[in-house]
Write a structure and sequence with these properties.
The protein is of the alpha+beta class and about 450 residues long. It has 3 domains: about 65-160, Beta-Lactamase (2-Layer Sandwich), CATH 3.30.450; about 220-305, Orthogonal Bundle (Helix Hairpins), CATH 1.10.287.130; about 310-450, Histidine kinase-like ATPase, C-terminal domain (Heat Shock Protein 90, 2-Layer Sandwich). It is built from 9 helices and 12 strands. The chain has helices spanning about 15-65, 135-145, 165-205, 220-270, 275-305, 315-325, 345-365, 405-410, 420-430, and strands at about 80-85, 90-95, 115-120, 125-135, 150-155, 310-315, 335, 340-345, 370-375, 380-385, 435-440, 445-450. The protein has a 5-stranded antiparallel β-sheet with strand order 2-1-5-4-3. It has a 5-stranded mixed β-sheet with strand order 7-9-10-12-11. A two-stranded antiparallel sheet has the order 6-8. A hairpin with a 2-residue loop joins strand 9 (about 370-375) and strand 10 (about 380-385). Helix 5 (about 275-305) packs parallel to helix 9. The longest helix is centred in the first third of the chain and has 50 residues, at about 15-65. This is histidine kinase.
Length: about 450
Amino acid sequence: MSIRPAMFLPFSHSIQARVTLAVAAVSVLVAAVIAAGLCLLLRHRIESEIFKETRHVATEWMGLMERGEVPPPTPTARVPLVQLVDSRGRVVKAGPMAGDRPLSTVRPTEEERFRDVTECPENDQCVMLTASRVSPLRSWELWQGEPHFVYAGTDQPPTLRGQRLELLVGAAAALLAVLWTLTTWRSTGRVLLPINAIRQRVSEITANDLSLRVPQPPGRDEVAQLARAANQTLSRLECAVRRQREFAAIVSHELKSPLTGLRTRLEEALLYPEIDAREAIARALPAADRMQLIIDELLAFARLRNTPCSSEPVDLGELVRAEAAARTTDVPVRARTEPDVRVLGNRVQLASIVTNLLVNAQRHANGQVDVSAERAGAQALVVVLDDGDGVDEVDRERIFEPFTRLEAGRRLDPTGSGLGLALCRAIAVAHQGSLCVEDSPRGARFVLRLPLLTN
């Protein structure tokens, strides 16, 4: 389907119209300058050629004048008008087409013996001629010193008559400006055609349907790059909206169970007076605690996504040793750290990652948990290893999704929310790092990677 760019916007608001008007103004100015220069050049060139011929004919006739005799004039096809006129304006000799009236009243001086002039008598066509003064020596020999003048000329060519040359060149310049403007209009329309197609498609995209993509023209020009960038943005937006919807569905599902339990306990206390109120409230508290835990972790998760955290230099070795020492449960934690493993980040958030990983490892371990902080090239590594059953390879990414809980996790921690590991990975990503489960000969091996702080 073809799209006409001009049909979408008012003429004054259209980029195509504004560009075309600007180019039209420039083209008119340039065409006017070119036309004026061309007119001057053509007029000067034609006049120079004509005056060159007339001067040659006049000079050649004066060269043939001998003592006591003036030969007949020698007109040519291009210079048919030749006359010899005395100082009183009388025609002494003339060619057959020159007539008996002087062609001009111009009298060159002895200092300037040749003058090129254009004579335009009333009600007659103009004549271009060269007025030449016979040399003083030749004048003494022939006429006892009386000045005589030779006129050699021709009718002005039609091209130079009136403003005909200017009109012809001006018409050509106007045609050039029009063609230039039309070409700009069509070229701009072709350039804007895919942009208008993109705009039309974007206007069809709504929050309920983000699957549409803008048409992407071939090539690597700016419009094609714009279309690709728009499609990439739409893809990211679609993924973000899909994740939000999934997250909202999971949140509502997770909150539904404790909320239903809490409501049931309270309704029982209201419907059955024989039930002790304190006992009913005590039985409702676990559901309220679970709701509070889920809401607190959701708030932390949302705050981490939307609010930038303050950063400071953090010694991961010191942080790991402190967190390992605080885990005084039945399962011992053995820490091994290297010196000067420093990163730039939020101490509280990084400590929460280590705490969550240690708690999770102690919950699944059989007898011992090992944690280490070390340097690996330009990265800092925190490794938490337990001696439990480990995590199946197919589940190693699922456990980092919000509210995802495997069967072993539900059995060992029935009241958990399933947000701990998702929150840990989100913190790691916010610190330009990563958190994943890697292969290990025993148990589960969680590896946190962060950029080292360079001095």
